[in-house]
Write a structure and sequence with these properties.
about 475 residues, mainly alpha, Growth Hormone, Chain: A, 3 domains, 21 helices, globular, MFS_dom
């Protein structure tokens, strides 16, 4: 495959990750938004927002995310991966217009729901799109782009808001959207989707585009073999375009679905969403006197660095080992932070322990939100059969986002009841479970075909599930 083809795959994959960037903008904007709209500086005619309204601003985003995941999981097989990505630009445009003209909490709440839809689509569509256009040798590296771009969005949101005000994110979103749309609309949909829709000629043209082959040039031997493998996979898995219960009965499919639910659950049960949005809250509650805003921005910058490092780690040691390492580091960071909160709640003065706390907190935030976030979002699309990818990822994401709504809405109340120490310890236990589960049940997906992944899953099945149910 030519270098030109690899460049095309990288550029288009970055464009396809734009929902991750806007997800980062939404998550990063939560903290300064909370401070601004609850203060006397707010431009709302109704005055400062109440605590209940602020909580709703955080949780309503995930109501929109649930809707976005559900709709995108259905649309990917109806209108395609490419057009599903583009459709979700529309609610983001409307949401940012509402933010700029809002003079009441109602319009802001509506904007959070609309902005949230792209969060749901980000958890479903980009990983499917990328898995279906990228050659096997590059899937490990490119599959981690989404997490890096998400954290870039978080950092950009906090940085530009700090310098140019609360509305700067919305204003600068419009040119970014139009540039991405202008380039991405020129790209073809994925070969797998086009084959799934029995549009073989278009599928071949799509594969040529993503492998850098001119239309007049015959397919290379490697690309021709890849195209035949894709057609055979679609033929075996997609005898009809409608989904039935039979598509879920194979043992390897069941295990792939279980792996999907475990990985997607990590975003909630390892505290990734909470720690990205409420970093300042955790720093303030630590009992240590420090510059909260500076620490928050610094951790956001480290998240970008962590994502870039995680790309190389996954590339050189593989996905399975990377997941085990990230889960283990997450366990250490979260448990250490939980112990610190326990000592603080016990009345100890921890101002002399500032560096130990910052180290544990940084590990607890950076590792899950970079390494785990990257892989937990990308791996499911590599191990699920083409026919049910959208349905399973959409369903799993909706379930996790429903949990996220309650997590964001009631975390502060729960914190007052059982304390940060208990919650962080619970997050650490999930990471320990994740490391053990990964070691025994998650296959290596680096530089392997889908057939190899299915074979690996079959070897990990308990005996009674070896055969189709």
């Amino acid at each position: 495959i030519s270098i030109n083809g690899k460049v095309v795959q990288v550029i288009v994959s970055i464009l396809a990750c734009f929902p991750a960037f806007f997800t980062g903008l939404c998550a990063g904007w939560t903290s300064p938004m909370t401070t601004y709209f609850s203060s006397n500086e707010t431009e709302l005619t109704s005055g400062p927002m109440t605590t209940e309204e602020i909580s709703m601003m955080s949780s309503f985003m995930y109501i929109g995310a649930g809707l976005g995941a559900l709709i995108s999981g259905w649309l990917v097989n109806k209108i395609g991966r490419k057009w599903t990505l583009l459709v979700f630009m529309l609610p983001v445009i409307v949401a940012n217009i509402l933010i700029l003209i809002a003079k009441s909490p109602l319009l802001l709440l509506i904007s959070r729901i609309l902005n949230g839809t792209i969060i749901g689509s980000q958890l479903v569509v980009p990983s499917i799109f990328i898995a279906e256009i990228v050659e096997d040798s590059m899937k490990t590296t490119i599959g981690t782009f989404s997490g890096a771009i998400f954290n870039l969005g978080v950092f950009y949101s906090k940085f530009i808001t700090g310098f140019f005000g609360i509305y700067a994110v919305s204003v600068t979103s419009f040119p970014i959207i139009f540039v991405i749309f202008g380039f991405f609309v020129l790209c073809p949909d994925t070969p797998e989707y086009l084959l799934f829709r029995k549009r073989t000629t278009e599928a071949e043209k799509s594969l040529r585009f993503y492998r850098g082959l001119p239309v007049i040039q015959p397919l290379t031997e490697i690309t021709a073999l890849e195209f035949e493998e894709k057609k055979e996979q679609i033929r075996l898995r997609s005898q009809t375009t409608s989904i039935s219960i039979k598509d879920f009965r194979e043992g390897t499919t069941i295990l792939a679905i279980i792996v999907t639910f475990v990985l997607t659950s990590t975003l909630n049960f390892a505290g990734i969403r909470l720690m990205t949005s409420l970093t300042e809250v955790f720093i303030k509650d630590s009992g240590i006197d420090m510059d909260v805003s500076l620490i928050d921005t610094s951790i956001s910058a480290l998240q970008i660095v962590g994502c870039l490092i995680s790309i190389y780690i996954a590339r050189y040691v593989g996905i399975r080992i990377s997941l085990c390492v990230y889960y283990t580091l997450g366990f250490i960071g979260l448990l250490g932070t939980g112990i610190h909160f326990y000592l603080h709640d016990s009345g100890l003065d921890l101002n002399n322990s500032i560096w130990s706390f910052l180290i544990f907190l940084t590990i607890a935030i950076v590792v899950p939100s970079t390494g785990l976030n990257n892989l937990c979002v990308g791996v499911p699309s590599m191990i699920l059969p083409v026919k049910i990818r959208g349905t399973v990822l959409g369903t799993s994401t909706v379930i996790q986002l429903i949990l996220a709504i309650f997590e964001m809405q009631y975390y502060l109340t729960l914190m007052d009841i059982i304390g940060n120490s208990t919650i962080f310890t619970a997050f650490s236990v999930w990471c320990l479970f994740g490391a053990i589960f990964t070691y025994f049940y998650i296959p290596e997906v680096k530089n392997v075909t889908f057939a190899d992944i299915v074979s690996s899953l079959e070897k990990k099945l308990p005996r009674k599930f070896k055969k189709a149910l």
